[in-house]
Amino acid sequence: MLDQRELRALAEQVLDLSAADETEVLLLGRATRLTRFANNYIHQNTAETGLQIRVRAALGQRVGVAATDDSTPDGLRSVVERAVGLARLQADDPYFPGLPAPDGQVLPTDLGYVTATAGYTAEERARAVAVVCSAAATAKQVSAGAFETGEQTVSVANSHGLWRYHHSTCANLSMVVMGPTGSGWGSAAASDVGEIDAQVVAGEAVQIAARAQDPIEIEPGEYPVVLAPDAVGDILDYLGYVSFNGLAVLEGRSFLSTRMGQQVMAPSVSIWDDGQDPTGLPLPFDYEGVSKQRVSLIQDGIGRGVVWDRRSALKVGEGHSSTGHAEIRYGNIGVGPAHLFMAPGQTAQAELPKGIERGIWITRFWYTRVVHPLEVVMTGMTRDGTFLIENGQITRPVRNLRFTQSYLKALAEVDAISRETRLIDGGGLSSVRAPAIRVRSFNFTGVSKE
Amino acid sequence: MRNLIDRALNLAQVRGAAYADVRIVGRESQAIGVKNGIVESISADETYGFGVRVIVDGAWGFSSSNRLVAEEVDRVTAEAVAIARASALVHGRAAELGPPEVHVGSYKTPVVIYPFTVAPEEKIKLLLAADAAMRAVAGVKVTQGNLVCQREHKTFASTEGSYLQQEIIETGGGIAATAVSEGDVQVRSYPNSFARDQACRGWELVLEHDLVGNAPRMAEQAVALLSAAQCPSGVTTIILDGSQTALQIHESCGHPIELDRVFGSEASYAGTSFLTPEKLGHFRYGSNLVNIVADATIPGGLGTFGWDDEGVPAQRTQIVQNGMFVGYMTSRETAGWLGQPRSNGAIRASGWNRMPIIRMTNVGLQPGTWRLAGMIADTDEGILMEMNRSWSIDNQRLNFQFGTEIAWEIRGGQLGRMLKNATYTGITPQFWRSVDAIGDEHELRVWGTPNCGKGQPPQIAHTGHPAAPIRVRNVQVGVMR
Fold first, then answer.
1. Phi, psi dihedral angles at A329 (to 5 degrees)
2. B199 contacts B393 by C-beta, under 8 angstroms
3. Out of B40, B183, B393, whose CB is closest to A330?
4. Does A45 sit within 8 Å of B86, measured CB to CB?
5. Which of A233, B133, B423, B433 could join A432 via S-S bond, C-beta 3.0 to 4.6 A?
6. pLDDT tens digit string along A251-264?
7. CB contact under 8 A, B86 and A126
8. A10, A2 contact by CB (below 8 A)
9. pLDDT in tens, A310-350
10. Thinking of the domain B2-227, which architecture would CATH place it in?
């Protein structure tokens, strides 16, 4: 991994090579290691070291982008030539806002960097995995999962003198533990690998798996549910992608296109995005170097905001500016939040089933997809711990269910939120911190069976 | 390059590897995106690097880097060996590859028009023309189009003596129109949804698709969908167009026949499979009409190559024969687990920085005897569904729910009113056992799926799917809330 000084020197070489009116270089460095296990042993074990160099060159309003991972002088010259060459072919883009100038904000360069995580070895990961496999085997169960540790650098420089650099680490242990007829789930993510206790995570998964054996089949239909944090994380992820996206609002694809400022969810629901909060997996600026703002998306159930990059903000016009959410590649569907948080409530997670006469506890969702974007109607399956709740208690496991449900309406039906939250690694330097929630009504449309 | 490959293979063996292979992969891609009459993105990306895979003490190790220079080759090889030794600390079934696979040769995707020789200006002109044709239709809110081309050069060498060089060329393109009204959003895509169709072909693929000629129809249908009737709920006969049949094959046949899933290797992420080994040769997967083949040798298929990423030659494998489940897609290691003498060559990595895993090649349906028009005329009551909009399936690949962009009612053998938000749901073997008509060779074409996710760390594979329209009886439709 190159350090800040070396990366800055590399960026300056690129900028010096460019004859474009404006030039930006984005440097994405990574050293990631992932140990994968299945059937209670390690079956795949990988390491990756890389540096991607992305150059955006502008000739007036004409923009070209090129990328390489060749950092030799010839490689740098070639990538600049390709970016400039493509810009020459372009027509004017009326929505290209130019590259940002430095905004004067001093941002942390190592928020979420932990030396122990960066230096975590394959042997250390193997020892943690051994704990998981042993716990599963002792319970006569079978584990499968992955333990990833790594470090990343994100650096942005441009011809207006902007320089941003950030160095972070991430550790993520996740697993499915399976008995003959049911499975459980455990996961933990943190910047500091020392915060991940394999014994605790495995214990949770083993316990869920033990309770999940011999599931009964229940009829699909409307049930009150408790959604554990991983399931809530999926809801927040999709709302971010489909609804909290400024361009989607502009184009009428988001429910917030017509309902900004209105009560759209239960008053207990508040959701925001904050790339500078160290309780997430922080990245304090976006991929064009703009400082990330804390953006209130839903406050007390009322639609309050969406996120923008500079191009989409220019499209919507006066009064809007980038919230610091530009992505690595310009995507024509717009940009979404990358560091989502949902406000915790007052109820202990274990107490959430209380008050439900007959309902369902869902550990997590699987293979969720948008059926209709405007109301965020989704379909997907439950997985790794679906249980019947009877008279306020989890009583027995049920077969996995398919749901077809508006996530928006689900969050309008929230009547309790846990005080505990869980950090979920979203991949690509994104994260969600979510509580568990109780929802008055959730629509199940099928059962998994042969 | 050969020196560095030999250096890695030698060092791996010196450090104790019983087996090692090296892949050097260089990929260049060009992508152009147009939206609402503006060229929003034009990019030319390159990536180049190498990965070393080893077996030490019966366990796997893999490491990779973007710097193909001697000292980095040494570091990465040593790291792969060290990782394998760490893997051996939590050991299970010893990694074994079965009989050696020793092949030397080269392969190049045959193309008529090399896509990188077509000037970017011509590509932009084509996309803008298609975009303008869509925007000419009143009521369309967003228009989009994209073209991609990719060239991957891959060198594979192993301690068994294989040395293979391949150049895989891909071309793809597509357009989409979005119409919006208060309370509704509808999209129509061509020739495939989620950006494009893609194939191991040249620019001729894009020309055949005639994006400009098809653009007005997409825009008109997107607008018409806003006022179309909602797809009713109930149990009925459905006819799927070829693109949706391709998706159905991909999700409910292609994934469950991946033998690594069957043996639990993907249990934590992609899932397992209902097609467990005792079913091989004994399980009725579909009706007698259903014949499915995995074939990595089909000209133009997006899953076509010369050798897989273990150096095993591309092959054709029967998966479903007259409705009976008869085959899996395998790697060298999993073929041995199943007691098969040899891999059928279905392991690939998404790039130099990933360890290969079993991926679909071209998994497709063999043609039947029907023309689509005849199928519709033969249907008293049902729904014709076209082009995927959403897809979800459980982790064993049994319970699925898919939605399509557009549908039409069928009554008395005639197409009736247009329907929107069409969905259907089912259980995989029940669904395929209910197929009573399959399109013939005139209706069949090879669809490309350039976005198949699997593995940890994640890998995106490109797969092909020969498919024709199918008719399926007694299907639950109209699941929407």
1. -110, 140
2. no
3. B40
4. yes
5. A233
6. 999 999 999 999 99
7. yes
8. yes
9. 999 999 888 889 999 999 987 778 899 999 999 999 999 99
10. 2-Layer Sandwich (3.30)
Cα of first residue to Cα of last residue in chain A, in angstroms, is 49
Average pLDDT score over chain B: 97
Q: Return the percentage of chain B with pLDDT > 90, whole number.
A: 98
Measured distance CA(B297)–CA(B318) in Å, rounded: 13
Domain segments of chain B as ranges: 2-227, 230-477
Closest alpha carbon to A48 in B357, B60, B80, B152: B80
DSSP result, A284-338: -B-TTSPBPPPEEEEETTEE---B--HHHHHHH-TT----S---SS--TT----S
Q: Is A181 on the interface with B (CB under 8 A)?
A: no
Q: What pLDDT score was predicted for residue A450?
A: 62
Q: Which pLDDT score, from 0 to 100, does residue A428 have?
A: 87
User: Which domains are delineated in chain A?
Assistant: 4-209 (3.30.2290.10), 215-447 (no CATH)
Task: Of A359, A378, A367, A395, give the one whose Cα is nearest residue A445.
Answer: A378
- Please say whether the beta carbons of B405 and B371 come within 8 A: no
**Which residue from B410, B366, B364 is spatially nearest to B386, judged by alpha carbons?**
B410
Q: Are B59 and A42 spatial neighbours (Cβ–Cβ below 8 Å)?
A: yes
pLDDT tens-digit series, residues A175-201: 999 999 999 999 999 999 999 999 999
pLDDT class of A37 with cuts at 50, 70, 90: very high
Question: Does residue A34 belong to the interface with chain B, where contact is any CB pair within 8 Å?
Answer: yes
Tell me the count of A-B CB pairs closer than 8 A. Answer: 269
Distance CA(A8)–CA(A25), nearest Å, equals 10
For residues A145 and A37, what is the distance between their CA atoms, to the nearest angstrom?
A: 5
